[in-house]
Predict the 3D structure of the following.
Amino acid sequence: MKNPLGSIMQQAQKMQEDFKRAQAEIEATEVVGQSGGGLVTILMTGKREARKVTIDPSLIGDDKDMLEDLVAGAINDAVNKVAKMKKEKMAEITAGLPLPPGFQMPF
């Protein structure tokens, strides 16, 4: 007879390795958040670190409030893209597992 506990432990170990690999892939990935139809862009890593901010020269002028809003919008767009990427990557790994609704992984 096979050892069911040993099998479960092997599956758990494989899943842990898959999670670590996915986390490393996510952290190395870069996304671009945009606002104002691309007039402001933010390059962000999967670790949610902003790498580069690009502002179209036409926005630099007297309307400081609008520029601030566009930068905030681009940041939010990038953060949302990172979150979506993480969710999709984790869904690939946990496919078929009976996890409770709303269960959040540790990263």
